[in-house]
What we know:
Elements: E1 8-13, H1 19-30, E2 35-37, H2 48-59, H3 65-71, E3 77-80, H4 95-107, E4 112-118, H5 119-128, E5 135-140, H6 146-160, E6 164-166, E7 169-170, H7 177-188, H8 192-201, E8 203-205, E9 211-213, H9 227-239, E10 241-242, H10 244-250, H11 257-267, E11 270-272, E12 278-280, H12 285-294
Parallel strand pairs: 1-4, 1-5, 2-3, 3-4, 6-9
Antiparallel strand pairs: 6-7, 8-9, 10-12, 11-12
Amino acid sequence: MENGVSGAMMILGEALSGKTYFIETVANTLVEAEKIYITPPTKQNFDASDIHKALQNVFDKKGTATSILSQLERRTILIFDDLENWWLKAPNGNKAIDYLATLIEKYGDKHYFILSCNIFSFDIIRKMSGIEKELLSTIIVPPASKSELKDILLSRHRTAGAEIWYRNNLVHEAKKIDTFFSDIYYKSNGNIGVALDSWINSIQKEEDNRLVIHKPKVVHFPKITDPNWKIILYHLAIHGRLNDEQFKRIFKNTDWLKEALNELEKTSLVYRKSNMSYFLNHSAQHYVEEWLKELEVL
Length: 298
């Protein structure tokens, strides 16, 4: 943009890898300007109307996306976090993404467009849409190193302000705490979100009200053989969330769907929010992705 070239920046990563945090870090290095997060409207058509409505909502303005973007102060930072939420792996499910691509082509030299997407979802989206040719740069969020992960977890601990104990010593004074962090590192494969979940779940309140760290439990992914479960978990992994109407656009026949979703809810792998959208359980996202990778589905 600084050289008059139009385009966007894309941040890619696996589930819970820290894409949103990375976006904020990048945005803070650009200019001193308000960061505007553009989220999809509640009811989506997965076409250009979604972009129009989203911009109307966030800026409280009427008109088309082009008219709104033309009115904005130059160098506004526009963030589309989780691009997979704007798309469906179904016929004509890429129209909103294609329209976003045309906006980036037209306004990418006037405003900063920062996008993020699940890396497996983007591998499909880039083949179905024209978004890839509008990207000036693509950054893949790597797994954290062992030392980076330790620093991140200890930083989170200091931010919370609570005293936490490990083997009768405060965490920052405990001699064998590195062994604990190594255990978290190898179980999370350096995934920041998974490591943070393990860290939080390892903290327990003792009878004397002290917060004490215990060795994190091993997570065993259930053995899944039902093909209906597999296809639902796959689509939730690549889309992030889906409601009944969106499932119907993906599958021609949905007679089997309700029963399968009810069964998955009972396993806690899937949950349903009050807005009637289905999601993968936050703690399960990484393990579902790893399982689908093993099956060579992702």
